[in-house]
Each structure stands twice: as C-alpha cells, then as structure tokens.
Amino acid sequence: MRIFKFSCFNASRLLDTNNSTKKRSQRGSRKSSYSLAQRSENERVCSTLPHSSFTVDSIGREALNPRNSIFGTPINLAEQDRLQTQHFLLKYVWGSNFSSPVTQILEFGGAKVLDVGCGPGTWCLDMATDYESSEFFGIDISPLFPSHIKPPNTTFLLADILSGLPFQDNYFDFIYLRNMSLEFTVKQCKEIVIPELTRIVKPGGFIECMDYCFPKNFGPTSKIIFDLWADELVARKFDPNMDNQFFDLLSSQPNIIDIKKEYRAIPLGNWGKMNGRMALNDVIQLLQLIGPSISLSGRNLENFLEEFKKECELYKHENTSYRIFAIKHRNTI
User: Could you tell me which residues come within 8 angstroms of residue 25 by beta carbon, excluding any fewer than 6 positions away?
Assistant: First the structure.
C-alpha cells in the first residue's frame, strides 16, 4: 500500500517520518477488512453528489470558480504539488496527521472517516495506508483527487457541504477539515457547515479542523500584503480570524463537548532550515495565487514578494498552525 503515498509526491522523503514508517510496517501484516462490496455500496450511496462548474482563467488553465472565495483554485499539477508538499510539512511539524484521540478506533478497523475539502486527497491517501482496515472518504468541489489509482479503502467524491451531504445521520467516526476556514462565511459556518458536520458524525465521534491563523505582527511590507488580503476577505464577508469563530461556533452546539485547541509555530525562510524554506515557498505560491484578487500582480507582486522574503529572514517570521477538535456527546439521539 505504501506506493500510493509516495507516488503522490516525494516530499515525505525530505522529512523525518521514521515513526510513521515504523507504525506502518507493524501494521503491514494485518489483512484489510475493507471489501470491494463495501466500496461498491459506498459509491452507490454517494452517486447522487452534484458536479462542480468550472471556468477557464486568463492563461487557459481550467480553474474552479468557488462561492465568491478569494481563492480561484487552479486544476493543475503545480497546485497539487503545493498541497501535497504542505501536507507532509504539516505532518512533520505536528508529528501526526491528526490530534483527535482516534488512533485506537482507526487501528481496530471498520471506522468511517471523512475529509471535507480533501484537495488532491493526500491526507486521505496517507491515512488509508496507515489504517488499512478503516474507510476514508474525501469530498471537494474541485476534482484534484485521484479517480483511479488509489487504495481500495478510499472513496473520492465531488461534493459541496453548503449544498448538504448525502450521508445519513451519525455516519462518520471522524470528520477532518484542513485549510477550509476562509472558504466559508461566519453565517455559512453557523447555519450550514457546523450543523451538517454535527449531523453526520456519530455520537462519540470527533470533528477536527486544522488551518493557519491569519498572519499578524509581520514587517512593514508583509503587513501591507496581509492587510490587503484581510480587507478583501472582509469585503467578501469572510472573517480573517475564523479560527476563533470556528471554536466559538463549535462550542455553541449543545451536543458537542470537550473542545480543545492546539498550536504549532512554523518558521518562514532560510533561518528555519529545510522546514522554513518549504513553508516560505508554500506561502509565496499562495500569495501568487491570490495576488490578483488583492490588487497585486505582475512586477508589483514580484517586488512585494521579494521584500516579503527579506523580512522573513530579518524578523524571523513564523506561520502559526492550529487544530481544533471536539467530540459529539455519546448520549446524542
């Protein structure tokens, strides 16, 4: 099964993953309980999922036009590589793919796991090779995920949580979201996203949201860039401080308990050695993606990014990653 992880991208080889490799080798002799019949049934249940609509951007690249988002996610190999590299960087920084206490459930087998906004599916593929006896579903409005070559215990589907998901109540043992906090307005989170996640997670199951805190306390040029970004987000009714909002909204659910929040600092730039260089490159690529939306493009954007790189070294800038996770009350009906 390991071929699926490394055929996605070789970034994991750049990082110290000895612990996860050891765990996989210990589980390798265990026969998967996931059957083709189960997979066929899962795909039948989800076959009514809506398809996304696409536009073609200025350089002829097929791109998604998502719900007034500041991100126009490109459907190309460069974006897949960025997201895959980011996955292995975050896994290394955190030392794991998740913080929720679900390891025993996943190892026991038969658990159902949902990745909301799965992108190229790297998290699902990685998890599916680690926990071969559990089932992993990835949904996204953008078809970056693999359609054919993938572990048998994974199912990828085009779906938008804002339209509702065709899963029955209390279906998943673990629901995971990453880099989705700026894809939803506070109103959407409050009225649709959180209630839908709460509906489909089992009593005793976990919901986990992972993302970055919006950058603060940066140098003068960096501040200009991120102020422009924040202003554009607010203009589109998104909240730059969605990490706090998500925590509060999850806390407001009467059947969600034991909410926890954890942080990890990630250096940006050469001063942070290999991790810092990878993290800086990820941010640069992201800023190049959103640049036109915040009135930065061409030579103007390039100049800003060069100054941003210098400030990362001068001020030792860091990015902050967070995880929020909670359990659905076991007595929920």
Answer: none
Q: Tokens in use for 60? A: 């002829």
pLDDT digit string, tens, across residues 156-193: 999 999 999 989 999 999 999 999 988 899 999 999 99
> If we measure between CA atoms, which residue out of 124, 173, 166, 174 comes closest to residue 145?
124
- Residue 74, beta-bridge partner list: 63
Q: Is 262 left (phi over 0), alpha (psi -120 to 50) or beta?
A: beta
Task: Let me know if 234 is exposed, middle or buried by CB neighbors in 10 A (0-12, 13-18, 19+).
Answer: exposed
Distance, CA of 89 to chain centre: 13
Edge to edge, the sheet with strand 112-116 lists: 154-158, 135-140, 112-116, 172-178, 201-212, 318-328, 256-267
Q: What is the dihedral of CA 74, 76, 77, 80, to 10 degrees?
A: 40
Q: List the chain residues with pLDDT less than 50.
A: 1-14, 16-63, 65
Residues 6 or more apart from 169 whose CB is under 8 A from it? 199, 200
The one-character DSSP state at 161 is: G
Contact assessment for residue 144 and residue 80, using Cβ atoms and an 8 Å cutoff: yes
Query: 82: burial class by Cβ within 10 Å (0-12, 13-18, 19+)?
Result: buried
* DSSP assignment letter at 40: H
Terminal C-alpha separation, the chain: 38
CA dist 237 and 215 (Å) reads 18
> Residues for the chain: how many in total?
333
- Residues 150 and 89: beta-carbon distance below 8 Å: no
Q: What is the pLDDT of residues 275-327, one digit of tens each?
A: 999 999 999 999 998 898 888 888 899 999 999 999 999 999 999 999 999 99
